[in-house]
Amino acid sequence: MRIVDVRTHVLLDPGVDPGATSSAQDTIVVEIETDAGLVGIGETDLNAWVARACIEAPGTHTMDRGLRSSLIGRDPLDPAQLWQELYVGSAMTGRRGALVHALGALDMALWDLCGKAAGVPCWRLWGEQVREMLTPYASLQPDASSFDDYLHTMVAWSQRARELGFEAVKIEATFAGPYVHKSLVGSDEQVIEIVAAVRSALGRGTEILVDVQYAFETVERALAVAVGLAELDVFLLETPLWADDIAGYAELSARSPVRIAAGEWLATRHEFVELIDRGGVHVAQPDVGRVGGPTEALRVCGFAAGRGRLVVPHAWKTGISAAAAAHLAVVTPNMPFFEFLPPELCTSRLRRELVKEELELRDGLLPAPQRPGLGIELDFDALVRFEEAAR
User: Could you tell me the residue range of the domain that residue 274 belongs to?
Assistant: First the structure.
């Protein structure tokens, strides 16, 4: 079998809001086609136009080969070997950052191809099954214009998530720092107020995760919020400090009464070694596409397990990334949850409409995927509409 084409689709939600802190409003979908007629599908959480450039740019010399051109004519059935060749071949431009994130979409599509070729779900190619039912958490970020509206909507959405069967919810509470959502600037006390309202509404039977998206510039400020959240039985506090503040994470992780989680932006296992060994975080959060694809995500999960750390992957994108995270959860013992944007509780049409027949929640759990590859089917009419919106 040989790869005959690599196609990229830049997609945009027609209702995109530049003031929203949400990367679910655009995506790049990659299709890798073979001479056997099989097509693998992947995506990554990166500015879709930048991702397309990384994939389609031609190479000019041996240390800067093009990703797409390097795949044409190759056998797709050894993604790990192809990953290494693409990583090394593009090293002068890549090694980290956007190019590795783009490589992740290709790696995801290659694994989808391998599963389809073998007639098995991807997870069967990745390791031993450790669970039959998976536990997603509902990731919630209302589109609100005031704090009171945000609070009331968050409580209502949390309750609706519970009605849908979710056993865990994540509260996006970004009222400070560089990524304030919808210009809703607020105090640190309001973060705790939102969580307290959700905890009161849900009781103690539901796990609550909290994401503040790099809001705090000091360890002491982050620690004060962590102490307040600990009284509300919060499972983790996500990205409280800037991604490069490894020393800050080390101090905060050592002192916090709540698990500290980070890693959604990182590329390759090498950055997770630093985050875990030097930064001391309790929970690693690779994005399956952005870290470099399933090949690299599996390595991160194994490394985290060896260090006694949990993994709760980031998947703020479409049903493609949600499916990839679900397959990863089947073979990863140290993954108690993975991120899932419920289509019913997400403002992005791209999230709601791009993928058909997603995994179905059953009493708060998702059954291990059984269809070949990633097991997803694109709605190509929706893909055309979103591609036109991006032009």
Answer: 125-378
Residues 250-283: tens digit of each pLDDT: 999 999 999 999 999 999 999 999 999 999 999 9
What gap in Å lies between CA 260 and CA 237, rounded to an integer? 5
* Among the listed residues 146, 169, 165, 140, the one whose alpha carbon sits nearest the alpha carbon of residue 232: 169
* Integer Cα distance of 325 and 330 in angstroms: 9
| DSSP code, position 275 | I
pTM for the structure as a whole: 0.95
Same domain, 90 and 190: no
**CA 323 – CA 40 distance, rounded (Å):** 13
Strands 136-140 and 310-311: unpaired
Q: Do 164 and 20 share a structural domain?
A: no
Report DSSP letters for 295-327, one per residue: HHHHHHHHHHHHTT-EE--B--S-HHHHHHHHH
Lookup: tokens for 176: 């400070």
Q: What is the CA radius of gyration of the chain?
A: 20
Q: Residue 142's domain is classified under what CATH number?
A: 3.20.20.120
Alpha-carbon distance 133 to 266, whole Å? 28
- 255 shares a domain with 216: yes
Q: Are residues 72 and 211 in the same domain?
A: no
Residues 163 and 114 in one domain: no
Residue 17 tokens read as: 């809001």
Q: Looking at the structure, do residues 103 and 174 belong to the same domain, yes or no?
A: no
Q: What's the one-letter identity of residue 123?
A: W
Instruction: Decide the pairing of beta strands 207-211 and 39-44.
Output: unpaired
What contacts 200, CB < 8 A, 6 or more positions away? none
Cα dist. 383→11, 26, 206, 302, 341 in Å?
A: 7, 11, 35, 35, 19
Whether residues 203 and 333 share a domain: the answer is: yes
Render pLDDT for 171-227 as a digit per residue (tens, 0 to 9). Answer: 999 999 999 988 899 999 999 999 999 999 999 989 999 999 999 999 999 999 999
Task: Give φ, ψ of 57 to 5 degrees.
Answer: -60, 135
Q: For residues 51 and 115, state if they share a domain.
A: yes
Domain total in the chain:
2
Task: Read off φ and ψ for residue 343, nearest 5 degrees.
Answer: -55, -30
